[in-house]
Each structure stands twice: as C-alpha cells, then as structure tokens.
Write a structure and sequence with these properties.
single chain, about 180 residues, mainly alpha, 434 Repressor (Amino-terminal Domain), Arc Repressor Mutant, subunit A, three-stranded antiparallel sheet, 9 helices, 3 strands, elongated
C-alpha cells in the first residue's frame, strides 16, 4: 500500500487555486468564515481540517470536496465561480495583497502614569478627565472604558474606585464614579 500525505497534497492544490485566482489565505478564511491561522496551517501542512471545512473550501470554487481534492481535476473558469468568490477576487485585485500589521504595545499606561504624576496621593478624579488630559497632552484619544480598564488592571494597586459620584451632570443614566490616587 502506498502512503500518501493527504494534508500535503491538499495544501499543494489549495496553493495552486490561490495562485490561479490571485487570492490570499485571508480571503479563503473570510469566505469559509474561519480564522486565517487555520488556512495558513493547512497551507503550511501543519494543520489538518475536517471534511466539512474541506467541502466549504471546495464550494468557494464551485466544486465538491472530492473534485477539489483531485489533483487532476481541472481548475474551473472564473465565469463558473460563485458570485461571492468573484466579488472577493475583485476586492483582492482592487486592494492588493494584505499588509501584515504588527501592533506595538499601547502607550496608554505610560501616558496615564505621566498624567497621574501631576496628582497627589488622595486626589480624586474621573476617568473621563484622565482621557481628556491624555488627548490634550499627547493627542491620543482613548475611551473612558479603556482608561477604567487600565485602572482596574495595570493600576489596581495605585488607584481605587470611590463611592462618590459626579452629581454635577444633568444627563440621564448612571453618574460616573470618582477614582482616588492611593500610591504613586
């Protein structure tokens, strides 16, 4: 019996289709509604996939899994592809290859530290005020939720939530709570 590496064979076929239609792994992931890492794993022959996903990938090209998996089966013409696939090919042609974006760690913690350095232990403030001061000083806009999340996580030993509410607001809804600097 001849041993065949099905994952490697499938990977070669998928690469051939990507090249033919000028698609990227992110496009396949989008069309089958999975993560790009799954498709990349298949392409690198590092991950296997279930029959259901094989069928979904084949249907991108208007085929069944057994047709797509046959290396001798002819690649379908552009005109015979499903409309959603044609739209994705047009999109990829328009925007070009995807650009990998590497995110650096946010500077929010350093900016909060610098703003808090102006305060004395015991000072009370609203998260909204900190967000506004960061915007004024650094030009970076953070939501109040992002600031509060940093208070709860990165600054939990430096800042505590008080029970005092900002009653000066006349808007509906809950009033924001003040925070207090307890340690520099």
């Amino acid at each position: 019996m001849i041993k065949i590496d099905l994952s490697k064979e499938y990977s070669k076929i998928l690469k051939k289709y990507l090249k033919t239609f000028k698609l990227e792994s992110i496009d396949i992931a989008y069309l089958v509604q999975t993560k790009k890492d799954v498709i990349d794993g298949v392409l690198k022959n590092e991950k296997g996939i279930v029959l259901y996903t094989l069928e979904q990938i084949a249907q991108i090209f208007g085929l069944r899994y057994f047709e797509f998996g046959n290396p001798n089966y002819p690649i379908p013409s552009f005109d015979s592809l499903p409309a959603k696939t044609k739209q994705r090919i047009a999109y990829r042609k328009k925007v070009g290859p995807p650009k990998e974006v590497t995110y650096k760690q946010s500077d929010i913690n350093d900016q909060i530290k610098e703003i808090l350095a102006r305060h004395k232990i015991g000072d009370q403030f609203l998260a909204e005020e900190i967000a506004k001061q960061i915007l004024e000083k650094f030009g970076n806009s953070y939501s109040v939720t992002e600031i509060v999340n940093r208070f709860k996580k990165s600054f939990k030993s430096n800042i505590e939530k008080t029970e005092k509410k900002d009653t000066s607001r006349e808007t509906r809804g809950p009033k924001p709570l003040f925070y207090r600097l307890v340690k520099k």
